[in-house]
């Protein structure tokens, strides 16, 4: 082997080792940068979870409470509507009965000259007013 080939072999080995070292170093640096970013993202996620987690939990509890209240109010309203319908029905029955009774009494009454109701069985001269 002559000296030129030895030098070129030595330079090749040094260059190859240095190239591999540089390549490995760059890959390691990119890997570390990606790990740092992943750690930053994880830290941000934890900070947001620590801050917003209780708020979200509290809001969900409040929403559940309000939904329960709305269901109760709707149920109460339906019960009140049923009760009101029963009252309306009873009042209508009373109105019909009163009208029937007044209608019967009206048949037994007549108006005198002054426009006042008088009983038919009374003498108009007596002026029997009610």
Q: What is the β-strand count? A: 2
N-to-C series of helices and strands: HEE
> Which class do the helix and strand fractions yield?
mainly alpha
For the largest beta-sheet, the strand count, sense and barrel status come to:
2 strands, antiparallel
Mean pLDDT over the full residue set: 80
Termini distance? 150 Å
Question: What is the CA-atom radius of gyration, in angstroms?
Answer: 51 Å
Question: What is the total number of structural domains?
Answer: 1
Helix content: over 70%
Which stretches are poorly predicted, pLDDT < 50 over at least 5 residues? none
Strand content: under 5%
Principal-axis shape = rod-shaped
TL;DR?
The chain is mainly α.
Structure, described:
The longest helix has 105 residues, at 3-107. The protein has 1 helix and 2 strands; from the N terminus they run αββ. The protein has one helix at 3-107; strands at residues 109-111, 117-119. The protein starts with a helix and ends in an 11-residue tail after the last strand. It is rod-shaped. The mean pLDDT is 80. Strand 1 (109-111) and strand 2 form a beta hairpin. With 130 residues, the protein is mainly alpha-helical. Strands 1-2 form a two-stranded antiparallel ribbon. It has one domain (3-126).
